[in-house]
Amino acid sequence: MSKGPGLFSDIGKKAKDLLTKDYVSDQKFTVSTYSDTGVVLTSTAVKRGGLSTGDVAGDVAAQYKYKNTLVDVKVDMESNISTTLTITDIVPSTKTIASFKLPDYNSGKLEVQYFHHHATFTTAVALNQSPAVDLSATLGTPTFAFGAEAGYETTSGKLTKYTAGISVTRPDSCASIILGDKGESIRASYVHHLDQLKKSSAAGEIARKFSTNENTFTVGGSYALDNLTVVKAKLNNHGKLGTVLQHELIPKSILTVSSEFDTKALEKTPRFGLSLALKP
């Protein structure tokens, strides 16, 4: 793919990942194995709720890559089968993604992404009798990008969403502003990387809902204690404090411990999460 402004979904993604990714509240165990034929088999078990209570769910996923084709298949405990087929460069500079879920025959979706040095375009169509259509476009460069997306419902003939965003990306920082929810909300974020490997970073985000005049301000960051251990924390103006400790037990195998506290109601029981991902 050519180097360009990236997809519209990339706008604001770095700050979102830093402030939300790995802040788990469940107990999760994942094991991945690799075969000589290139198949990756992943088994996941999740216990939602506390350590002594909660429901257990799980799934098994298989991934196979051959040349420019990637196939992902996932089966959950309710026998739902989700399949995603990704093919790169059927037409030069494009990526085609087809997905469907069984036994829900109306869940099919076809997406085509086009990448150019100064623009990217995506079109996604639901494969059912009354398909919804999503469109997005981004213009600019890897440093400066402006984009918009819209969703159209063919049955009612109405726009289901429209969003616009702008981002400025430098080697050590990234800033973005997104106007979303049909113009009812705005979110601005900034990330600054403190080292060249980008393991230690600081981020801030402010979001406002115009209909309710509600503001949410969140600050957070990550810090690499050493090559194997990273700590993360975030705090918003509503008093929600989240922490994460990640440690690489062996190469590619990660232990994640997270917690969430309400600093304005310390009598409430904190939420804890645990995730263990093992890869050979």
Automatic annotation (TrEMBL):
InterPro entries: Porin_dom_sf (IPR023614), Porin_Euk (IPR001925), Porin_Euk/Tom40 (IPR027246). The keyword Phosphoprotein does not apply. GO terms for cellular component: mitochondrial outer membrane; pore complex. CDD domains: Porin3_VDAC. Keywords: Ion transport, Membrane, Porin, Transmembrane, Transmembrane beta strand, Transport. It comes from the Eukaryota. One of its GO terms (molecular function) is voltage-gated monoatomic anion channel activity. It is found in: Membrane. PANTHER family: MITOCHONDRIAL OUTER MEMBRANE PROTEIN PORIN 5-RELATED, VOLTAGE-DEPENDENT ANION-SELECTIVE CHANNEL. Forms a channel through the cell membrane that allows diffusion of small hydrophilic molecules. The channel adopts an open conformation at low or zero membrane potential and a closed conformation at potentials above 30-40 mV. The open state has a weak anion selectivity whereas the closed state is cation-selective. Belongs to the eukaryotic mitochondrial porin (TC 1.B.8.1) family. This is Voltage-dependent anion-selective channel protein.
